[in-house]
Design goal:
Neutral Protease, domain 2; seven-stranded mixed β-sheet; 15 helices; 27% strand
């Protein structure tokens, strides 16, 4: 007996070791090995622990724009707080403008190739034949004793060697002076900032972003986040307070992150009076600068300069726009605990759509996002019109879309509104819930697009929107080039990143909310994540764990398939069998096997293949359970009541195959002979025993004429031609069926 026990334990031990070295990667296995493990600072529940820390950087900046040379010059003082448990001998600083230097790592020539006919702008993107000056000139980097510090610039990052060790819990001060030529946005792709030139009136709109040397993130999971900036992957930044002074031509108007501190010095009495009116205008915007005033302002260029002063608290970045072309409107938005000023700045070229829709769209976003996550905390939310871009910063965003000769199509107008909502929404993700955009684009773009689409659905229900059907073409594409969502930002193919980082995560969250978890519980969990991580730096594991922690749902199967693989959904109804109980024979004794049943007059296992219901049901005999089948149970089923319960009922056995590889809940629609419908929903866990094929039996009161999978198009099934039984006879019939579902 002892020998048998020893052998059993030994076999179990070696099986365990084998499982550890070669972990089973089934679709329902935990994803613990695939995500960052919990540590002292991030709990296994997905929340920051009491010991969580992050660095902080406060900035005092003075900058100016020379409109003749298009050069921005600046001086800044950074107070950097080392809240980590580590002592630091050097720090990394982002120099994002260096990405525009000729020859630096960039995506300037992506999606371009030589061909027999190519326009001049495409050729410029591809070759940079018209070169332009770009990148930082660093005048000095000094410590708090005004001593020059040793630095090393590596493309878009600068390593600063500290003169003394920055101890844990201590702070240091850096002073930096710099300048760079502001670039013409029309000369290169992904031009998120720079100036836009208007030849008709010889003016520019300056979009100033990524403009000052900024502290890189140092955190508990990665150390320094010092990946190079290549434009596609955006930013990881620390929070802090900003005091910023910007000197521009006297007739310029500035829109910026933060609250304007010297309005009486830079605005005239009429503008100040209108701003006071806007503070009380909750129904519609008030024009602070009208069209006529903006046009008049375009005509002459003032010789003097003016300095605008702003203060922003607890933000991770600062951006601004400057021009003499701006019209300006503003409206008060009442949130539960405070009032926000929604403001839009736009050249006359944006009329009439910008005056009609921009500030209204800001208001819609502020209200819906605040309800879905946490109340917008800042004093202003600004939308600035420009061309060919949508890009976000704290409290301000630059948004493309304009009429042509004053006219705009309904579709283009929808796109303008949608862009504004999306970019304003980025104030939550990642400007406050500060995920690492450089590494995980989906954590800001995907989560933001999800709420952006919710805003569209609630406030603009007639607009086109993202649904599971949106990602079907992408997910059914060539697996040799498709990448998982869990791909770092700069490593996805440009022609796919919209689907992979925006739409697919959005659809995944829609599935969780609408079809897997349920709206009420999902909304609570999503809000929990947002509130746990506001003003902090979450990573994917924190998001995944929080949703499970707040819903009591095992979602590892969903994360594994949807985020970590390129599998797609393709469920097939491979077989449906229709049975009725034979009521003429109610008691058959001494059956040779309980696995066999009576079909007609022949004893056999039911295995008949049917392509429709035209042959009627197969009659089966329900026999009395023999005593041996009960084992040690002394109680018995009431066989008579069982037969009564099934008398006259229709029994359907459905076999479903997983052909796409992605497990999902199964939604079955039954169409009955009397014209009515019914839906059964099976959880994804039904695939646990067999990930490739399931068989399920259903009892129905009425006769079925058709069985359909995913009738409401909830799960992005890539092949709907195999979702029905009987199968459609021809393509036109299938097309009609698809249209009926939409």
């Amino acid at each position: 007996m002892q020998r048998i026990f020893f052998l059993t334990v030994t076999l179990f031990y070696f099986s365990f070791l084998n499982a550890q070295t070669k972990p089973w990667q089934g679709k329902f296995e935990p994803i613990d090995r695939m995500i960052t493990p919990p540590n002292n600072y991030r709990t296994a529940s997905g929340a920051p622990s009491k010991a969580y820390w992050q660095q902080r950087a406060d900035y005092k900046i003075k900058a100016s724009i020379n409109e003749i040379t298009n050069v921005l010059k600046g001086e800044e003082t950074i107070t950097y707080y080392n809240n980590s448990p580590d002592d630091l001998t050097y720090v990394w600083i982002q120099l994002d403008q260096n990405v525009n230097k000729n020859g630096n790592e960039d995506f300037g020539d992506f999606r371009n190739q030589m061909k027999d006919s190519i326009n001049t702008r495409q050729m410029q993107f591809l070759t940079r034949a018209l070169d332009f000056p770009a990148g930082y000139s660093i005048d000095y980097v000094k410590n708090n004793r005004q001593e020059n510090l040793k630095t090393h610039v590596n493309n878009t990052l600068m390593k600063v060697k500290l003169s003394e060790v920055l101890k844990s819990g201590a702070s240091t001060t850096l002073s930096i002076a710099w300048s760079y030529p502001i670039t013409d946005r029309s000369l290169f792709r992904l031009s998120r900032e720079g100036y836009e030139y208007f030849p008709e009136d010889d003016n520019r709109v300056y979009l100033v972003a990524h403009w000052f040397p900024r502290m890189a993130v140092y955190n508990d999971t990665e150390g320094w986040q010092n990946q190079q900036f290549q434009k596609l992957g955006e930013f990881a930044l620390e929070f802090g307070n900003y005091e910023v002074e910007i000197t521009v031509p006297k007739d310029h108007i500035i829109a910026a992150t933060g609250r304007l501190q010297n309005s009486k010095e830079v605005l005239n009495k009429t503008q100040l009076k209108r701003l006071d009116q806007a503070n009380l205008s909750f129904e519609k915007p008030v024009m602070i600068i009208t069209q006529d005033e903006a046009i008049e302002n375009e005509k002459t260029k003032a010789k003097g300069v003016k300095t605008w002063k702003f203060r922003a608290e607890n933000v991770r970045d600062f951006s601004f726009a400057s021009s003499r072309k701006f019209l300006w409107d503003a409206q008060a938005v009442k949130l539960p605990t405070h009032t926000v000023m929604a403001m839009s700045f736009y050249p006359k070229e944006g009329l009439p759509v910008w005056s009609e829709e921009s500030t209204k769209a800001i208001k819609q976003a502020l209200e819906v996002y605040s309800e879905a996550t946490f109340e917008y905390p800042y004093p202003v939310a600004i939308s600035v019109n420009t061309s060919n871009v949508g890009i976000e910063f704290p409290m301000i965003s630059f948004n493309g879309g304009r009429p042509i000769n004053g006219k705009i199509s309904d579709r283009a107008k929808q796109q303008v509104i949608s862009t504004i909502i999306h970019e304003v929404g980025h104030n939550w993700f990642p400007m406050i819930v500060s995920s690492d955009e450089r590494k995980w684009m989906w954590m800001d773009e995907g989560l933001n697009t999800f709420l952006h689409q919710r805003t569209i659905a609630e406030r603009y229900p007639g607009f086109n929107s993202v649904t599971p059907e949106t990602v079907v073409p992408f997910m059914s594409g060539d697996k040799n080039v498709i990448r998982p969502i869990m791909t770092t930002s700069d490593n996805d193919l440009f022609n796919q990143f919209g689907y992979n980082f925006y739409y697919k995560p959005t659809v995944g969250l829609q599935m969780l909310r609408n079809s897997i978890i349920g709206k009420e519980l999902f909304d609570e969990a999503f809000k929990e994540y947002a509130n746990r991580w506001k003003y902090k730096h979450p990573n994917p594991a924190d998001f995944f764990r929080t949703l499970e922690d707040a819903t009591a749902a095992d979602l590892d199967w969903f994360y594994r398939g949807w985020f970590f693989t390129t599998d797609h959904v393709d469920l097939e109804i491979s077989q449906v069998k229709w049975f009725q109980i034979n009521e003429e024979t109610t008691n058959i004794e001494e059956q040779k096997s309980t696995d066999q049943i009576k079909v007609g007059n022949d004893q056999a296992t039911v295995n008949k293949e049917e392509t429709d219901f035209s042959n009627g049901p197969e009659m089966i005999n329900m026999i009395t359970t023999p005593d041996r089948a009960y084992g040690q149970f002394l109680s018995r089923l009431d066989d008579t009541e069982m037969r009564k319960a099934l008398s006259g009922k229709q029994i359907y056995e459905v076999k479903i195959k997983n052909k796409g590889g992605l497990v999902m809940p199964v939604v079955i629609e039954w169409l009955f002979k009397d014209g009515t419908k019914e839906i059964d929903r099976l959880p994804a866990e039904i695939w646990r025993k067999n990930e490739y094929e399931i068989t399920k039996t259903f009892i129905k009161e009425k006769e079925v004429i058709q069985v359909n999978l995913d009738p409401n198009l909830e799960f992005a099934d890539t092949n709907k031609s195999n979702n029905s039984f009987p199968k459609p006879d021809n393509e036109s019939e299938f097309d009609t069926f698809k249209k009926s579902k939409k």
